């Protein structure tokens, strides 16, 4: 297994807001919860598993804060230092998760003719409301891929192959919103979710990289 090593272009700031709710009748007398991490990676590289466990993971029930000097899979993907907090305000029952990350870079696509993808900094926050959850995010200095300044939920970008009609190198979902079906007011938002070589071939790297993840559940 390739080891994940932990280590110690400023642009336009992109921000967004995501809301999810249910009717008050669906609420139960349960405590709100929250969780978050700076990111993670679950990859297959050169036929071998290579991973980064959720970085500086926190949750409002147990580990209410986390920090890291960084994590990387050498020559492929790197997360810089950052911190997380997950709390529940006992006075009003509101649960909040916040993650604040420094530089992120993905160099692993360069060998296949793809871009070097980088962000200077990023953050994501969610909190519960009386009838659901809401989340917001922000990032700066994104290079290697273009996104709109007004970011809709689940905005997908495809990184094309080097030649015409070649299979894509990756897909990236920005502002990824994940809710259960039927909705119960809970929500997970990933600032960025990268899938490597989603259509193969099997000889290429595969797997998922998540950057900036927060989850909140009100009941």
Characterization of this structure:
With 219 residues, the chain is mostly beta strands. The protein is built from no helices and 18 strands. It has strands at 4-5, 14-21, 33-45, 48-52, 58-59, 65-68, 71-73, 77-79, 82-88, 95-101, 104-106, 117-119, 121-128, 132-140, 155-159, 170-178, 187-196, 206-217. Strands 3, 4, 5, 15, 16, 17 and 18 form a 7-stranded antiparallel beta sheet that branches.
Summarize the topology.
Layout: E1 4-5, E2 14-21, E3 33-45, E4 48-52, E5 58-59, E6 65-68, E7 71-73, E8 77-79, E9 82-88, E10 95-101, E11 104-106, E12 117-119, E13 121-128, E14 132-140, E15 155-159, E16 170-178, E17 187-196, E18 206-217
Antiparallel strand pairs: 1-7, 2-14, 3-4, 3-5, 3-18, 6-9, 7-8, 8-11, 9-10, 10-13, 11-12, 13-14, 15-16, 16-17, 17-18
Reading the helices and strands in chain order gives: EEEEEEEEEEEEEEEEEE
Q: Please give the alpha-carbon distance between the first and last residues.
A: 39 Å
Q: Can you tell me the overall shape?
A: globular
Helix content: under 10%
> Radius of gyration in whole Å, from Cα?
18 Å
Mean pLDDT score, rounded? 88
Number of strands: 18
Amount of beta strand: over 45%
Question: What's this model, at a glance?
Answer:
The protein has strands at 4-5, 14-21, 33-45, 48-52, 58-59, 65-68, 71-73, 77-79, 82-88, 95-101, 104-106, 117-119, 121-128, 132-140, 155-159, 170-178, 187-196, 206-217. With 219 residues, it is mainly β.
